[in-house]
Each structure stands twice: as C-alpha cells, then as structure tokens.
Write a structure and sequence with these properties.
single chain, 128 residues, 5 helices
Amino acid sequence: MILTNIDKAHLKLASNLGYINNDDFAHLKARWAKYNEQKHEFGPAYLSLESYFEMEKTSFMLLYSRINSRPIQDEEIINFYNSNQDLFTRADGDKFELAEVVEIIKKRIREEEYLDNVKRISLQYEKQ
C-alpha cells in the first residue's frame, strides 16, 4: 500500500490532535496488526490494510466531529440547511424542519472542517 498525500494528511492531523501517537506508515501497520490480532464482538475479524486504514480515517473524522469544541453558530446551521435541503427531504417529499436536524447539521459542519484540515495539510506534502 502506498500512502497518498491525503492519506498522510489524515495521519498527520490525527497525530496533531492526539488520536494516534505517531503518523508514520510503520505505526499504521502496527495498529493494523494489533486490530487483526484482537477478537471483535462486532465487525470483521480480519481487515486488509487498506480496509483498516479506511476505518481508521473514518474514526478520526467521527471523533473530531464529536469532541471538537468550537461552537457552531446558528447562522452556520441555517446556511448549511438552506444549501443542502436535498439532504433533509423525507421519502414522500416533505422537508424535515430545521429544529429536527440541528445536531446532524452540526456534525456535518464539523466533518467538513475535518476534511478541510486534511486538504490543507495535504498541500504541505505536495510542496515536498
């Protein structure tokens, strides 16, 4: 497996945030090996390195969206809702009310922030 600049940026950001101790490939492989050695009540007993890393990147983003302390302003929530109303449409075409989806919107805003940080960090690798 060859890490892309985006992959390296995910690892660098996770390391900077304290989610992992080291952002190098050897430590990724060690975390993967440890995962595959453990017994799992839920999920697959074995993952390929690529699958493990996808799971890890997703967990970084979810962790960031859950513990990020920056308050999301009402204006940001309203703007996100208005720009993404297709995401908040019921099967019969009715729209969810803003009050019903505020927590989802906050999570999505934080996920976008996380991915923006990953993109910003990846630019550093492109300059090398």
